[in-house]
Known about the structure:
By secondary structure, this protein is an alpha/beta fold. It is 33% helix and 15% strand. It has ten helices and nine strands. Adenosine-5-diphosphoribose is lined by residues 36-38, 41-42, 47-50, 54, 121, 141, 219-221, 223-224, 244-246, 260-261.
Amino acid sequence: RGLSQDFVPLKSRCIKGLADWILTSPCQRNIIVLAGAGASTAAGIPDFRSPGTGLYDNLQKYNLPTPESIFSLDYFRKAPDAFYELARDLWPGVQGYRPTLTHRFISTLDRKGRLLRCFTQNIDGLERLAGVPSERVVAAHGSFDTATCVRNGKSVPAEELRQAVLSGKEGPGGWQSLREKYGGLVKPDIVFFGENLPASFFKHRTLDFCKCQLLLVIGTSLSVYPFADLPREPPGSCIKVLMNREDISEFGFDISLLGDCDEHVQELVTRLGWQEVLKEMADSK
Ligand code: APR
């Protein structure tokens, strides 16, 4: 039977309900965002696991034992070239990646006093570039902001490492000369498999989630622990929303908005009447 002309797709009803909740909830700073690589794909940065386009499907040229080896400390110590070459592309600012609509929405949540924290797995720095204050971002898998010698734990100026990585391996200023200078290989403080997450992750995991009344999980497969345990942290009264291309229902979301996160965000900010987000995005193009 044909649908009546006033039929509203369920997804739109969910987004309208979400917007009404955000507009009418009396509390401030009660929304937590969990972000993954899917929040940045619209910026041109591949995610990790999407079949065919994900980073892990496109590392053949490095002849790695496994794709994840590129973020393994043991492999880095043995053969650092692969990571350094990849880091040349990933380093924030080098490729000029710009925040997506989703990043700008997160920043607007902060500006409107609604964002408690954005826990991100991403190392692209786009949340901060979109204007989210650093104290509102937990970079759970680290960042390129600081660097460390993996042999002796000495801190190294990140800019010196960036220059070395961009200038290549050999010769003065290359990453090999940095190894001599600091007594071992120098790595940006992004979290490799097997390394500890930053202290801020554990601090905010303990302090924040009891205040969380709306959890937005955006663009992540929730494949990597302990980050993937976070959706279990909020109290039972918290509304948990997924915005993701693939369904990960095992995490018990109240609302699963499947598909492109920027499309869902566009409809949500329109329902919220936050036109400034759309204007900011249009102006940035
Ligand atoms: N809109 C919505 N979802 C998207 C979009 C998009 N535009 N693009 C991709 N996705 C979804 C994919 O379908 C996938 O479910 O985002 C998810 C990205 O998952 P992953 O590629 O596994 O990335 P992520 O979850 O961030 O990986 C976690 O794994 O390798 C480690 O440290 C690395 O931080 C990374 C962690």
